[in-house]
Amino acid sequence: MDIKEIVQSVFDRTKGIEDKGKLASYIPELKNVDPDSFGVHISTTNHLNFGVGNYHDKFSIQSIVKVLSLAMAYSLLGEDLWHRVKVEPSGTAFNSLVQLEVENGIPRNPFINAGALVVTDVLLSNLNNPQQDFLDFLKNLSKSNSIAYSNKITASEKKVGYRNAALCNFLKSFHNIDNDPTDVLDFYYKMCSIEMSCEELSQLFLFLANGGCTLHKNSRIITRSQTKRINALMQTCGFYDESGDFAFRVGLPGKSGVGGGIVAVHPKEYAIAVWSPPLNQKGNSYKGMRFLEEFTTRTELSIF
Ligand code: DON
């Protein structure tokens, strides 16, 4: 099978379809991207690297970072983390508040915003210099040296972060946030603002296809068991109330972000990143979903 040929041909076909998505508008700065940008990059455990389209361009990874903040918090806290956040799909939107009250302030999973805020709080409590330490964690995972926060995106989200502020304060009222909510929110927005390209993302996520070790330096980041569990969470919760649909159509663990990026992982085989900014109604990249569906159909490289 010629993976490069399949990536190229699925890319060409997907580029031609009508885009029914819309740019995220609730974070003003996210509207300032070219909606026609479209890039794909695949990195495999046997060292194939291949990209098409705008795969070198950096974009705001947004919620994709929640997998990485989780990996770091899990490596610091181990299984105690699951006293603060559960591992069930929510069936609700990424920024929903409805379950928190009835479930006593314990978020359903670490990928909805409520769960990611708890993970952020764990990082704040356990790191000496959270912003720098988190960036160093990513730099250790990555072959690239140019991963950075975007101050512009951070400021833009902070200005309109009413829902996240509500979530964080609500969590605090249930004693599931230890730090000052303002500090938790600031660090959360910072992490979501990180910019990476499809090439950087697919290479960075390879540790989840490689049993928890980076491929380029063979350095262990998390245990094999933790790797399995993070992949399981991406499979069941990575696309919020569209997680079932993604499993059904694509059949891979994955994570989306409102910047229009999606990363998907085939344990033992590959990591693939797609970026197309317009989003479907559930907040996931319209063309990204379409590309991955056809890619796993053509290659038969889904986990099912
Ligand atoms: O908190 C937010 O709303 C954003 N910083 C991240 C949301 C997001 O990416 C949802 N993913 N599809």
TrEMBL record:
GO biological process: glutamate biosynthetic process; L-glutamine catabolic process
Ribonucleoprotein in keyword set: no
Reaction catalysis annotation: L-glutamine + H2O = L-glutamate + NH4(+)
Keywords of the record: Acetylation, Hydrolase
SUPFAM superfamilies hit by this protein: beta-lactamase/transpeptidase-like
Source species, domain of life: Bacteria
Top enzyme class: hydrolase
EC number in record: 3.5.1.2
Record family assignment: Belongs to the glutaminase family.
PANTHER family, per database record: GLUTAMINASE
Subunit field text: Homotetramer.
Stored NCBIfam families: Gln_ase (TIGR03814), PRK00971.1-2 (NF002133)
Designated name of the protein: Glutaminase
Organism: Flagellimonas marinaquae
